[in-house]
């Protein structure tokens, strides 16, 4: 495909912006000597659930704030539906943002909070009330609309912040770690709700998170950030199964990244490779390999029961590898391997992925 580097799905700066959706070209941002974002190119078609994933400080929030217009770009351009908005004020862009701290007005009821944004749009009082009621229903909090924000739980406040953004029917909603303050259970409930709302409303969601599982669970596509740059853009399957770089392989899930030198000695491959721990099977060291398999002799250094899985730490001629096994049975039901056992760690050849860099 024109303009797409093989394997990375990274765009060139010269690629024509989308007529429907968000396009970013050559976007950079420096804070003094810190280059927070450097040369980012992205296309996000209208209606996509797109996540920006990366470790703390990798530049995700800065890109989001530049799309919203809260931060000026040092270089590059931002296009919304084909129109260059780089120099537009935030309120001139058809964009809404939901922040992690919710930013609700404390003295206003839930209903008033949600109606607030509609006031500026010169909509009649009755219509405002009807639209706000509908948005509050959408996040399933109709029974609480008379309450003040401090009378709600964190998760409920989060949903109101979302209703307040949704009521304006933006084409684009930016969400900066909106679930960061929630406990695990509520977070998982909200992930499902957010995804349903996005699918039904067809609003483009750009979602910032450092939680790889959350990004994979919710997104159509993910951009993986590292040190101000995008390392790869792809569907959850693509970035997990075909990581373009060792950083992406290591950031998404667990990995056994083997450098070219070691791979040559261990399995006769002259390139950096990755084998996911869940694809490695441990069998008796005397077993032989099938023609479609590869394997190494290993000693079990440690094991850990993780509930759904058991983790095995392996020593392979001085190299540490990890393998996981799904606990289909209760502990002790069948005899498993224990620390000190010699095993054959094997996997299908087709499950080895080469890592370009
Ligand atoms: P997090 O997940 O922690 O929010 P992030 O990936 O969103 O991280 P950014 O907030 O975009 O990262 O920050 C990127 C870099 O820019 C960091 O090194 C940060 O310290 C720096 N930075 C961000 N905002 C400013 C600012 N206003 N002034 C100076 N440096 C800043």
Keyword list:
357 residues; alpha+beta; Rossmann fold; OB fold (Dihydrolipoamide Acetyltransferase, E2P); 2 domains; six-stranded mixed beta sheet; five-stranded antiparallel beta sheet; 9 helices; 25% helix; binds adenosine-5'-triphosphate; ATP-binding; ATP binding; AAA+_ATPase; nucleotide-binding
Describe this structure in words.
The protein has nine helices and 18 strands. A hairpin with a 2-residue loop joins strand 9 and strand 10. The chain folds into two domains: 231 residues, Rossmann fold; 98 residues, OB fold (Dihydrolipoamide Acetyltransferase, E2P). With 357 residues, it is an alpha+beta fold. The chain has a six-stranded mixed β-sheet with strand order 6-7-8-3-9-10, sandwiched between helices. Strands 13-17-14-15-16 form a five-stranded antiparallel β-sheet, with no helix packed on it. It has a four-stranded antiparallel β-sheet with strand order 2-1-4-5, covered by helices on one side. It binds adenosine-5'-triphosphate (ATP). Adenosine-5'-triphosphate binds next to strand 2 and helix 1. Keywords: ATP-binding, Nucleotide-binding, Transport. GO terms for molecular function: ATP binding; ATP hydrolysis activity; transmembrane transporter activity.
